[in-house]
Specification:
Elements lengths: L27 E8 L2 H13 L5 E4 L7 H4 L7 H25 L3 E4 L1 E4 L16 H24 L23 E6 L7 H10 L4 E6 L1
Antiparallel strand pairs: 1-5, 1-6, 2-5, 3-4
Helix pairs in contact: 3-4
């Protein structure tokens, strides 16, 4: 029986945008749905996205071509962050060489330091033929380190615990099974209704995940 004031979307998922209290959802993390083939999870992911669910994810033993598009995942901001890290390395490389070779003021860096301000053998203030080497190396260094660090941060890794680790069925996610997890915090999540929706997508099994 439907909750008063809510409607059912054509896909079987609730169309209400506001999260309402659901006694059946208390104490669970979400629902785990198992699929047997890449085609099955691709179709299911597309349906879940079209149904308007927001807090959900797919788990596969290998990359499934086009799955991210079917899930409606937007392009990551990581390339722009890595670009910023690389440009920071370029700037640091330039300023470091300029300061150590041509500056005449003191800078506090744990101790007071000053660049070598004296002209020796016609030393130029800015050496365009030498500076790019250090600038290039620092650009690559900060971009590489920044890429790995930011990737871990954006993916909230390392994750030492996750509710899906309690599921024996989920162990096959690294072998030959494909899974979709819809979290209970999703505004459209209702235990019985969401479970029925996942079963309608062709899931071979639907399992509750404890918090």
């Amino acid at each position: 029986m439907n909750d008063p004031g809510t409607t059912i979307a054509p896909t079987g998922a609730p169309a209400a945008a506001t999260r309402r209290f659901d006694d059946e959802s208390v104490g669970i993390y979400g629902l785990l749905a198992e699929f047997e083939t890449p085609a099955a999870i691709y179709t299911a992911a597309k349906r879940v996205h079209e149904a308007g669910y927001r807090w959900w994810d797919c788990h596969t033993p290998f990359p499934v071509h086009g799955l991210d598009k079917a899930m409606g995942i937007r392009p990551t901001i990581l390339p722009f962050l890595v670009l910023g890290a690389g440009l920071t390395g370029t700037t640091i490389g330039f300023v470091l060489q300029w300061f150590t070779n041509a500056s005449s003021f003191d800078l506090w860096a744990l101790v007071w330091v000053r660049g070598y301000e004296f002209l020796v053998s016609g030393k130029p203030l800015l050496s365009g033929s030498v500076y790019p080497i250090v600038m290039f190396e620092l650009t690559i260094l900060l971009a590489a380190v920044g890429c790995v660090t930011l990737m871990f941060g954006l993916n909230k890794l390392p994750m030492l615990y996750h509710p899906c680790f309690k599921s024996e069925r989920f162990l096959r996610a690294s072998d030959d099974r494909f899974f979709i997890i819809i979290e209970a915090r999703d505004p459209k999540f209702y235990r019985s209704r969401t479970g029925a929706f996942l079963e309608s997508l062709g899931a071979t099994a639907v399992e509750e995940l404890e918090s």
